Amino acid sequence: MSVVARQGFKYSIIGYIGFLLGTISAIFIFPNDFEFYGTLRYIMPTAEMLVPFVVFGISYSNVKFFHHVDKDGKRQNMLSLSLLTVFINFIVFLLIFFLIPSVFPGFRNTKAWKIKEIILPLILLLSFCAIFNKYISNYKRIAVSNIFDNLFPKIANLGSFCLFFYFSLSEQTALAFFFGIFALMLFGYIYYTNRLEKISLDFSTAYFKQDSFWKEFMNYSFFGFLGTFGNYLAINSFMIGEYMGMEENGIYSVLYALISLISIPQLGLFNISAPIISKTLADGDMLELDRFHKKTSLSLYFLGAVLFSCIMVGFPYLTRFMPQNGTLLRMYEPVIWIWGSAVLIDLATGFNGNIISLSKYYRFNILVMLLLAGLTISLNLYFIKNTDLQLIGIALATAISLITYNVVKVVFNYFVFKVSPLTIEMIFVSIICTLAVTVAIVLPDFSNNFINLVYKPAVVLILIFIGNHFTKVFPVENYLNRNFIRSIFKFK
After folding, report:
1. CB-count exposure of residue 277 (10 Å: 0-12, 13-18, 19+)
2. Which residue, among 132, 122, 100, has the nearest Cα to 113 in the 3D structure?
3. pLDDT attached to residue 488
């Protein structure tokens, strides 16, 4: 089994462990106090939204130019200067941040300003982590970094919430624990990077000055920076927290925890597939790229559709086991349907963005990312200020912007590279899953909610498996065999 399959699968396994931890917390713990959980979920996305202004796309250049500097033995030089530049950028960012109130006095009334004592240091930690994360990916090792990126934030949320709600400690103490976990994450990144390759700081600039290499490096970084503004999840959390309140942000975050199950395999596959995409583009082998694109997109869509189908039929019964019977969450059930459908479409389009960003047309990817950010912000503002839809409006805004974003990329890749992620098999997957969900919904309910929670998703799985058996849409047998399962436990 190739390193791509092993690392991608391990990445997904870690993702599902993180999902299980996050889901259990979201169902049984966080609904006890949406207000405080909303605060936690405001801090992290707000920091993530501001991190690009500090990293400035340098993390992406650590991937783009890794092989270039590797040939000259300057990997450590690139890593060292990247970390130094990020620190300098952070100092500049601090100066601008504290000057903003003198120009816009209303900035002092924002929640970001009121809890800046934890947001600002967190930005620095996450910025350093972003550099190490991309640097490590050059070694085709993404599983361990996913422990830091996926599990640690969930541990921070859960631990901080428990200290505040169950142990009745002060909010300041709980937030200190929250911050400490991310400090531990940075130390973990440093330790693991040092294990892969002994860290030897080299801050000399001579190599980057040769042939004005630093200009090419910073130019790519700048466009990478522009392409980071499409983080619609961080934008949503920030805007909900500022315009609606922390309770609504807590509800939104719980719903997101449920929906995020659908897209977990996507992230690992994209990271580990980047070298393959880069190679096929360099070789000009568009037929192989198209084949690989269709294959991975179908895999993502099939798995996502199966999981989404189970979530749809099980969600109403799941809310019965939440504190206060999940009444507030059940009110926003349409968010699950709307948002989940948008995520499915995103999965169906595969790694469109990766193809563009790794090609000479990477600037176009910047434009569509800015389009996504602009649409998300403008549509959020429209639904918040002009409708009473609340979180349903946020879901609609996200769905519209995400679908538009993906359609633009599909069209571009088709005309420029002659590749497309869409296949006829996806239609069969949609039909099979729709029929399975319909049958499960119309089946009678038992008086016991736990039985309903188990048997209705089970019916969905059985019907999808039967439908796939006859249509041969997805090769399930390739993943349910002894050799594949054995290979995932090899850590070489």
Report:
1. buried
2. 100
3. 45
Measured between its terminal Cα atoms, the distance across the chain in Å is 11
pLDDT for residue 492 = 44
Give the C-alpha separation, 53 to 428, whole Å. Answer: 43
Asked whether the beta carbons of 241 and 119 are under 8 A apart, the reply is no
Among residues 413, 141, 171, 131, the alpha carbon closest in space to that of 294 is found at 413
CA distance 114 to 308: 38
Give CA separation, 73 vs 65, 77, 403, in Å: 12, 9, 43
From CA 369, how far away is CA 362, in angstroms rounded?
A: 11
Residue type, 37: Y
How far apart are the C-alpha atoms of 165 and 31, rounded to whole Å? 11
Q: Which residues, 6+ apart, have CB-to-CB distance to 237 below 8 Å?
A: 41, 42, 44, 45, 46, 249, 252, 253
Which positions of the chain have pLDDT values less than 70? 1-12, 15, 230, 264-265, 267-272, 325, 477-492
Pair of tokens at residue 57: 């796309």
Q: Are 163 and 133 in contact (CB under 8 A)?
A: no
HEC readout, the chain: CCHHHHHHHHHHHHHHHHHHHHHHHHHHCHHHCHHHHHHHHHHHHHHHHHHHHHHCCHHHHHHHCHHHHHHCCCHHHHHHHHHHHHHHHHHHHHHHHHHHHHHCHHHHHCHHHHCHHHHHHHHHHHHHHHHHHHHHHCCCCCHHHHHHHHHHHHHHHHHHHHHHHCCCCCHHHHHHHHHHHHHHHHHHHHHHHHHHCCCCCCCCCHHHHHHHHHHHHHHHHHHHHHHHHHCHHHHHHHHHHHHCCHHHHHHHHHHHHHHHHHHHHHHHHHHHHHHHHHHHHHHCCHHHHHHHHHHHHHHHHHHHHHHHHHHHHHHHHHHHHCHHHHHHHHHCHHHHHHHHHHHHHHHHCCCHHHHHHCCCCHHHHHHHHHHHHHHHHHHHHHHHHHCCCCHHHHHHHHHHHHHHHHHHHHHHHHHHHCCCCCCHHHHHHHHHHHHHHHHHHHCCCCCCHHHHHHHHHHHHHHHHHHHHHHHCCCCHHHCCCHHHHHHCCCCC
Round to whole Å and give the CA distance between 117 and 175.
10
pTM: 0.84
Residue holding tokens 């004005």? Answer: 212
Residues 108-124 pLDDT 10s: 999 999 999 999 999 99
Tokens for 136, please give them.
């490590």
Judge contact between 487 and 1, C-beta under 8 A: yes
